[in-house]
Amino acid sequence: MRRQSSLTRHVARHLASAALVAAVAAGLGGCQTMSDVKGALASSSASRLDPVPDDPRSAVEVYGERYRKNPKDVDAAIAYGEGLRKTGQRSQACAVLEQATIANPGNKPLLAAYGRALADNGNSQAAFDVLSRAHSPDNPDWRILSVQGTTLDKMGRHEEARRYYDSALRMAPEEPSILSNLGLSYMLTKELPKAEETLRRAYASARADTRIRQNLALVVGLQGRFAEAETIVKADLPAEEAAANVGYLRDMLNRRAGPKTASRAAPVLAKDD
Questions:
Q1: Is residue 16's pLDDT more than 90?
Q2: Whole-angstrom Cα distance, residue 124 to residue 233?
Q3: What's the pLDDT at 50?
Q4: Is residue 41 within 8 Å of 110, Cβ to Cβ?
Q5: Which end of the chain is more exposed for a tag (fewer CB within 10 A), N or C?
Q6: Are 119 and 151 in contact, with CB atoms under 8 Å apart?
Q7: Positive or negative: CA dihedral 10, 11, 16, 22
Q8: How far apart are CA 141 and CA 109, in angstroms?
Q9: How far from each other are the two terminal CA atoms of the chain, in whole angstroms?
């Protein structure tokens, strides 16, 4: 039972909160990172920002200084909050973005960034509520719908989460990131054949990335097909990275217990980057 609970927590922890792709097996990729949600989760005036430094620590320094000079600067607040998130300073990211939303009420890109930060910090209900204000019923954003689905999955509200994924898929048919989130939702409720079928649809897309492959490998392995899972996770990777991925996969699968439900897991959102 202890191992089963541990694996469930691991699955829930790595379900994406506000990213284009959810990654239950995020650690498989070593230095791999998850892409940030674009569109509604980016500032509409981001073009006014200087290029964001690749190093998140540099981004924190650059945009932190800009934010401190003008806490009402929406672009600086979003970029600073993003840098804080990527460096693991989740609570501080929430604090910065909360203050920015107070100074700029109703700014949807800012609300989206704040919702993302809340989700990363494990505040699933608050994240869901804030993200609901980041778009509107008459102008929904499929990315945010998908993110809201993941927050509902964290709270064990799986059927409700799947309605959000379905709505997102109607707007973006066969979008691999949504399918990946949906597949992981099925994984959380131990519906592994459904999870596999959904993740294979995501994996078939030309826009599928490494993290979707990793998620598919995990769900295949959880069904006892270890050799197939290793083949999937090693595909097209350099030998060293492939070996690291296989090692992590084996560690996960050695626990052998399938996930129960997110309601039994700590509501901790994935570290994206």
A1: no
A2: 30
A3: 56
A4: no
A5: N
A6: yes
A7: positive
A8: 11
A9: 31
Q: Residue 167 is which amino acid?
A: S
Which amino acid, 172?
A
| CA geometry: angle 200, 202, 204, nearest 5 deg | 70
Pair of tokens at residue 165 = 């994924």
Integer Cα distance of 148 and 178 in angstroms: 11
CB neighbours of 244 closer than 8 A, spacing ≥ 6?
Answer: 28, 30
Question: How far apart (Å, rounded) are the C-alpha atoms in residues 109 and 256?
Answer: 41
125-170: pLDDT as tens digits: 999 999 999 999 899 999 999 999 999 999 999 999 999 999 999 9
Distances (CA, A) of 237 to 39, 185, 241: 30, 27, 6
Handedness of CA 238, 240, 242, 244 (dihedral sign): negative
Please name every residue paired with 136 in a beta bridge, in sequence order, or none if there are none: 139
CB 23 within 8 A of CB 10: no
Task: For residue 71, give the DSSP letter.
Answer: T
Asked if 177 contacts 199 with a C-beta cutoff of 8 angstroms, the reply is no
Residue 72, CA atoms < 13 Å, CB-side half-sphere: 3
- DSSP strand E in 15-76: where? none
Taken in order 184, 185, 186, 190, the sign of the CA dihedral is positive
